[in-house]
Amino acid sequence: MEAAAMAGSEGSCVPVARAALWKRHIMRQLRQRDRTQKVLFLELVPAYNRLLEKAELLAKFSEKLQLEPSEVPAPHAGSWERESRPDSDGVTSPATLKVKWQQEEEGLRLVCGEMAYQVVEKSAAMGTQQLQLEERQGRLAALEARVAQLQEARAQQAQQVEEQQAKNLAQRAAYEDLRVRTGNQEAALRRLQEEASSLLERLVQLKARAAIERNLRLERRERASQARMSQELKKAAKRTVSISEVPDTLGKGIRESTETLALAAEWDSLESEACEKWKRPFRSASATSLTLSHCVDVVKGLLDFKKRRGHSIGCVPEQRYQSIPVCVAAQLPVQAQDVLDAHLSEVNAVCFGPNSNLLATGGADCLIHLWNVVGGRLEANQTLEGAGGSITSVDMDPSGSQVLAATYNQAAQLWKVGEAHSKETLSGHKDKVTAAKFKLIRHQAVTGSRDRTVKEWDLGRAYCSRTINVLSYCNDVVCGDHIIISGHNDQKIRFWDSRGSCCTQVIPVQGRVTSLSLSHDQLHLLSCSRDDMLKVIDLRFSNVRQVFRADGFKCGSDWTKAVFSPDGHYALAGSWDGALYIWDVDTGKLESTLRGPHCAAVNAVAWSYSGSHVVSVDQGRKVALWH
């Protein structure tokens, strides 16, 4: 009947019925055990009761036997012997009965003792079984409470699943709505593109028609001028020269007549060629008329030129740096080769030169030190002075001849390698400058500040050519061919077109952005944030390709820098405990963890362009060269 009831119940009650089966099974086993234990005592209890009854009877007999000798006078020995013998009627004598009863009493006492011992043993066993029963009942109660908790949790999870399904349905409806809107917008875009192409074709046709009409007008004018010239030549040829003129003018007249005749012959030939030319329906390829394809090429060139140049009106080509050699395969660092106390206080920034032999470090002591990497050692090269505040960022141009640094005195400063004092000061920010980077175009740079602005600079004139207002503190910037990427304190990465004035894209992250690093091919962006994670963003699809995290890795400050390897296969960052973490960009796997020289938080790291060396700097004034 229970199976039938379970089969007939609804689907929602099946788990409850199944949960009740094991309870019934346990109760059935407990009842079976009680029946088994009870059977063992069913024979013992009546026997014990009979033994007690016999003991009471023997006690009464003993009392009577003890009273009888004192009341009855002692008979003579002969008479006692007579009495002790059985009479002719077969009645046993009292002495015999007394001995017999004493023997039976001893035997009963022995049996009673044994049974009492068995009763004690059974009582102890029963107590043990009772304890086990209580323990199992306690476990059963705990399991029932656990089952109740699990059922409650299951109900909550079922409710959460229902809520999530409702949210999914709402999101699916919103997605369908967006898909429909996207389809409509794509259709509208296609219509606009078709209209634009048709307008372009009409424009080209109008240009070609106008060019043909202009050529016709020019040819008419040319033909009219040729006709007039031919008529004048004919009139000149008909004129006669008098021989009776002055002798000194004779040669001149003859020469003029000869030239006139030659011109007439030449113009006759030109007129014949013109007539033949106008007899043909179309002009030759050397004519000045514009063909349809040529007009299309001209219009496209104008449009491409406008798109390429933006709002500028100049036609001078942009001067660019020579490209830095690409590293084919970077070498993973294994151990620290050289460790120095490079600055008087914490070191905030580090950067390699394009030749990988020159290194720049900047710290809170307002100094920039240049180092030569020679044979796995750091040798002091030069000290750049003149910074008005702590150095927050250091960058070297692709030629390796200039050093740009961001400082806390609301400005960025420019040095020329080989000169100890600052060459230019880029002032204009109203708060600390947190990032300063060279652009790929010569004599241009970009700075970011905590005053919520990003500025572009013309280094030739030390002039701010553009100011971009943002909504949050800027912690780092990187520059591509035509884009500027900035990381902010509001957990967002913003993209700016260097030829426009608006933000083209915003990518949110889960923590305050501390640094940005652009791969050499400008296809991937590495961001480090205060949520202790590194993210690789694919710039072709504007999505997060990889997320790097590790046990023990933690950003030590708001300016912790992480970088790509020069070949773009690895990501490197320093942690708060002085360790360096290296991840594989393709697999997301943690390749290695380097520990040793740093006892304080690592602020910045740099990977040489050759891929052979790594440098790390920390808050304890140390600079470590890894190989």
TrEMBL record:
Name the record gives this protein: Protein Atg16l2
What domain of life does the UniProt record list for this protein's source?
A: Eukaryota
Q: Which UniProt keywords apply?
A: Coiled coil, Cytoplasm, Protein transport, Repeat, Transport, WD repeat
Function text: May play a role in regulating epithelial homeostasis in an ATG16L1-dependent manner.
List where this protein forms a coiled coil. 133-209
Q: What is its main location?
A: cytoplasm
GO biological process assignments:
autophagosome assembly; protein transport
- Gene encoding the protein: Atg16l2
Instruction: Spell out the Gene3D superfamilies in the cross-references.
Output: YVTN repeat-like/Quinoprotein amine dehydrogenase (2.130.10.10)
Is Ion transport set as a keyword in this record?
Answer: no
Q: Name one GO cellular component term.
A: Atg12-Atg5-Atg16 complex
Of which family is this protein a member? Answer: Belongs to the WD repeat ATG16 family.
Q: Where is this region: Disordered?
A: 69-96
**Sorted alphabetically, which SMART domains does this protein's record hold?**
WD40 (SM00320)
Q: Where is the Autophagy-related protein domain?
A: 25-215
Here the segments flagged for biased composition (Basic and acidic residues) are 79-88
Q: Tell me the ranges holding the WD repeats.
A: 340-381, 384-425, 426-467, 564-593, 595-627
Name its cellular compartments: Cytoplasm, Cytosol
Q: Any keyword ATP-binding? A: no
**One of this protein's Pfam families, by short name?**
WD40
